[in-house]
Amino acid sequence: MAATMKNVEEIRTRVILGEFGVKNVHTTDFPGNYPGYDDTWDLQKFQKKFSIDLVSLDENSIEFDMVGIDAAIANAFRRILLAEVPTMAIEKVFIYNNTSIVQDEVLAHRLGLIPIKADPRLFEYRNAGEESSEEEGSEIDTIQLQLKIKCSRNPRASKDDSDPRELYLNHMVYSRDIKWVPIGNQADVFGESSIGPVHDDILIAQLRPGQELDIIMHCVKGIGKDHAKFSPVATASYRLLPEITLLEPVEGEKAERLKSCFSPGVIELEDVNGTKVAKVVNSRLDTCSREVLRHSDLKDVVKLGRVRDHFIYTVESTGILPPEVLVMEAIKVLMAKCQRFLNELDSADMD
Fold it and tell me: Are strands 203-206 and 116-117 parallel, antiparallel or unpaired?
């Protein structure tokens, strides 16, 4: 019975990587599925098991562990980061003059995908039902940008020069050439805030003497579900925590080969009485390639698994908002969804 209970615990808590497949991939811890296990959801039990641990944080990315939740909730959180955290992006492009070789619609598309550094929490959603002209926007829902540039010959260039960088002025149009034009009282409200492209080295177009661009752009608030340009993250992904278990001591040449089967830092060799013995040091670094299973004399000495409810998140921001702010905003969106669902249940009960 003890062995059976041990197998059940493994099925409930571990995903096993086998030579020809992956086992225990489905969630099975629902009430009544296993005798002797009370899997009814309990708030206190959840609060005791659930934790978020910060692993690393820098200007553009964050890595953290979310422990004690189901894959459905973990994936919902990832999808919210991708598609439901709002940002500001270029929505309307008014091209007054474009004599470059880039077509108007291609140019507008390129401009729309440039990340704009502006805090979306300070703006309202644009009311799509307004009957006013599409060109109009107010200081609470619109950011106006301008791109006005003309290419000309460099009078100081030598006759022998063939490099366009020496021959022409303004022949490369970059995102740094986009300037913010405050609407209403935005100049007073935002003050020194540098509203504009996140990166100033994004190439937009190339010009030759006589060609010019004269463009006005309107940025509005939106979400990635409507268009990818509103997505605040470059990547938002998660993986399960790897778990590597050595079933028997591995020594000598076998230990060397075992170490080479895993990512650097996962397996290390330690000297025991003059013999090299393999030891699992940090299974978190493993990419779960299952390379070890190709070796007939090694595949039975190691067990590869993943912890089912331990999710390692990696979130990389586009630079519009810091990554830690994106995580908090995603949590707020998830909370709002839950509250909306509870309100619907309450209204259904009243009916």
Answer: unpaired
